[in-house]
Amino acid sequence: MANRKVYLAVGRTNTRLYRFDPIDGDVRLIDNVPVYVNGYTAMGAQYRGDGQEPLLHAVSGNKLVTMDPQEGTLTDAVVEGLPSGKTWYDGDIASDGTSLLVVSTPNVPSYTINVDAETATAGNLPGGGRWDDYSFHPKNGRLYAVEGDNGDLLHIDPGREPMKQILKQAVFPPAEASGSDGSRKAYAAAFFDQEGMFYVVDSAGNVCFLDLTDPDTVPDKAQRIDGRIPVDGLEVMNGAGRIAPLPIDPGYDYIVVDKQFKTSWPAPWPVQGRVYSYTLTVTAAGPTDPDDQRDVRKFRISFDLPSAEGAAVESSGVEVTAQSDGRVYVESVGDQLLPAGQSRPVDVQVTVPGSDLPGEYPLEGLKATRLA
After folding, report:
1. Beta strand 153-156 with 164-168: parallel, antiparallel or unpaired?
2. Strand ranges of the sheet holding 16-20, from the earlier edge strand across to the other edge
3. 24 and 60 in contact (C-beta within 8 Å)?
4. Exposure pattern of 52-85 as b/e (b: 16+ CB <10 Å)?
5. What is the pLDDT of residue 1?
6. Gap between the Cα atoms of 313 and 303, Å rounded
7. pLDDT tens digits, residue range 22-34?
8. Structure-derived torsion over alpha carbons of residues 168, 90, 87, 15, reported in degrees to the nearest 10
9. I need a labelling partner for 217 at 20 to 30 A (CA). Which of 170, 172, 226, 281 fits?
C-alpha cells in the first residue's frame, strides 16, 4: 500500500502530525489530530486498504500512540514489556502490518511492538551513531537509514548485534538541525516509494533522495532537493508511510504564483460538474524573499483536484504531467525563459466533477516551482 502523501511528526514536545508530499514539498498540518504534549517518535504506518489513509503508530516512553488522520483521533496505551523512561528514535512497521520495530540509544535493546496486542519483545542492540529513522525497502525488505553526522548510508539488520552496518560512506550531505532548542543534526524521517526511491528529511526540513530501485546498486551520492519544507522553524522528529511514485522530479524551489478567477460554467456531457477558468500568473521571484529573483526556464504548477473520473486541466503552453491522489501537476513545455523578476500569465480551465459545487473553485494548495 502507498499514498502520494506520507506523514511527519513535528515538534519535540507538543508534537503535531503533518501530511507531506515529497514531490512538491507540500506540508500541511492535520489540524483535527490533537497535539501530544509529551511528544512522540519512532512512528510507523499501518495501511488498511485502498482509498483509506493508514493508522499511524508512534512511541512516547512506554506508551503506544495511535493516530487516525481520517477521523482526527489520537489515543495512547501502555505497552506491556516496553521499558519506561527511554528516548526512542527509529520506527517502522514490517510487512506483516502489525510489528513496529523501534530503536532507542546504543545500550538499550531494540523492541518489536505488536501494535494490535500492545505488547513488546526485546531484540538486539542497535549500535552507535545519530540515525533517527529508518524504512523498509519495498523489494528486499531490508531496513535503510542515514547517519546524520557524516551521511553514511546504513543497513539496519534486526538479526545482528549491533544492528547498524555501513553500506556506503558519505552518500548524503551531513544533516542540519532546526532552529528549535535541543534540535539534533539528524535525518529524522525516512521513506521509500513503491519502486525503491529512498527519501530522507533532516531535522531542519532539508530533503534528499537516493535511487535504490536496484537495491544491489548504490549510487555514490544522493541528491538534495533545492529548498526546504516549511515547518515554522520546528524540529522534524520522525516520519512514516510509503510513497506512491509519480513520473516527475521533486522540487521545492518555489516562485510566486497568483490566481485570478474568471468564470465558470456547467461541464459538457457526460461529466456532471463545472468548468472553472483562471489566469495563473507566475513570477520569477521567491514567494517569501523579494530579493530572490532568478531566471526561470521551466516551471511546475500544482494544486488540489479531486481524483475522480472527469477531473481535468486544459491550458496552452503547459501540460499535465501527473494527476494522482487528489492533486494535479502541470509543467511548462520546452524552454520558456522568464527573466528574473518578470511575470507571465497561464490561462487554465479546470473541470471539477461533482454536484453542489461552488461558483469559484478554490484551487487549494496552489504552488509554483522553478524546475530549471
Report:
1. antiparallel
2. 27-29, 16-20, 6-10, 236-240
3. no
4. ebbbbbbbbbbbbbbbbbeeeebebeebeebeee
5. 64
6. 11
7. 988 999 999 999 9
8. 130
9. 226
pTM of this structure: 0.92
Structural domains in the chain, CATH included, are 6-243 (2.120.10.30), 254-370 (2.60.40.290)
Cα separations (Å) of 323 from 5, 313, 351?
13, 10, 13
